[in-house]
Fold this protein.
Amino acid sequence: MGFEAILGNRRLKENLTQSLSKGHISHFYLISGPEGSGKHTLARLLAAAILCRSGQKPCLHCGPCRKVMDGNHPDFITVDDPEKKTVPVDLIRQARADIYIRPNESEYKVYLFPRAQDMGIPGQNALLKVLEEPPRYGVFILLTDNPDKLLPTVRSRCTELKMQALPEGELQAALSGQFPQAQPEDIAAAIARSGGFLGQAQRLLGEADQLQPQTRAFADAFSQKDPLALIQLLAPMEKWKRDALAEILAAWLELTESALAARGGVRAVSPLARRIAASRSAGEILEAVKALKQALDYTQSNVSPGAICGYLAWALR
Ligand SMILES: [Zn+2]
């Protein structure tokens, strides 16, 4: 199996496979790359490879491999609290103490730090003490979308694995398989805006896929310049709570903003945004953007949802 689940990144996968087959395991890995570049997938496969009991690592079939992939291997520990903005230094100190307790069932104990850029200086200093003198079986995998936020003393101790952008053909093949409903131009636009990273393109296409019915209806009414349809759409929303209204208006704002960008030459992923851009002038879209921003501001004050919907029926006509 190896690292096949990661697309592209051929040299990185070859180097890892080669060093693992020779039993060369680094104590510290730093996996860097933007959001959606596959850092988490690589980290999991790497942990599986380190804990794997089979010849070709990771085999993804043996007990340890499966436990890692299922997230319940006792020697694969994630150090984070996603609720907190900064990774709490206490958690890092706990991990630092825990690492001196021998592995439960493997030859290694692997610690994953999913957002090393958010460890803060005290956290990194706490980590540094282990980095200087790790136990023989200790492995740390740090993930970051911004390696420059790490102390040079931390970074220099790590084997850095840098996720690379994928070639267009490879992205296209993967995305057409995963989004069979998407039009070729949606996929092309997502690729153009993804920076070459699969996760980013998936997110863009997924968002375009999951629009609320009201947002579709808004795009229809606005691009067809149909004031009656707009009124029919807004009338039931007059009874909504402000929060629900704000949520939908934010989606409309995003849509009109990307339509405006599309008029300026940026390829829009959403077919709805492209349709608005094709049927309305830049000036008209700009007016809609302004009106939606104003309406969103109203949802934060004590203007009633009824008055907000009335304002929009007039401003977006
Ligand atoms: Zn295995």
